[in-house]
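hi got a favour to ask and not much time before my train. below you get a single protein, a line of residues and a line of whole numbers that encode the local backbone shape. could you go over both lines and see whether the tokens make sense for that sequence. a few lines back from you is plenty, here it is:
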Amino acid sequence: MNAFEQINIGYNSVFKKGQLTIGLVLPIENYPLSSVPSMKDHLERVCLAEQLGFKAIWIRDIPFNVPTFGDVGQLFEPFSYLAYLAGHTSKIALGIASIAIPLHHPAHVAKSAATVDQLSKGRMILGVASGDRPDEYPALGIGFNSREELFREAFTYIRRVSDPYPHLQNHYGELRGHIDLLPKPKGTKIPMLITGSSRQTLEWNANNADGWMSYPKNLYQQKNLINQWRQLIAENQEYDRPFMQPLYVVLQKKDDKRPEPIQLGFRIGANYLVEYLNQLKRIGVNHVALNLRFNELPIEEVLRILAVKVLPHFNSTIEEETTT
């Protein structure tokens, strides 16, 4: 199977065939007892993460505080926040994981993503999803049960408006080749990773996405899903495409602390975390976004332990060449 496509600096740095890299879900903060983070020292921690060698930061699109969901993410609007972080960083990839594209007009998503890509000199990675919080849809006057079709049309719109003077007609509007959306992405396109199934078939996702972002599962299930994904890609695509997942980690003081399962992750020592990440690497996972929300140790201490004892096994220190 061929290597991954070279799209922009962020995508090329995070996703490498046969390798696994480590990133972080924002906010980089302990907030186990509340759904709302303080965002204290948020910029300093992002800059520290870049300095320590984490490959990417990932922020979520959560328009409303839905109490039953239990988490409002990083509070700030994703693209505005990424543009702010782009101005204070120089090499860490800037990812959205993920934006529910049926809730937004795709022209605005495309323009915002291309803007961040330009301002960051090509570090933007766009995760997209159909959305899973039913309360948000009526608040925006959108039918929750229509999100399957809306996702496909929004995805197609975002992809097509990267072309100059595009032609397109669907639910979101008509483009007749007489107007153009600017700016264009810094790279060849905005890399788009589909989250979960987004209510599409695996075949559709394999034929259209630049990567797959799915949830933690046991190793056997995850391996089978990745194998199915890669087989479909091999049958129809010129380039292989990466697979990534999040992982909740409550890092323990003792490096040899055996893993104790928590929802979507583990309470675990550094040595066993390295072992587990190597298992993910062997089954074909290319990137893991660590969520540190439930940690008990000071967050800066957690970052430094990870940087010393985990990152050297995975994140390359070799500077990436620009391709765009």
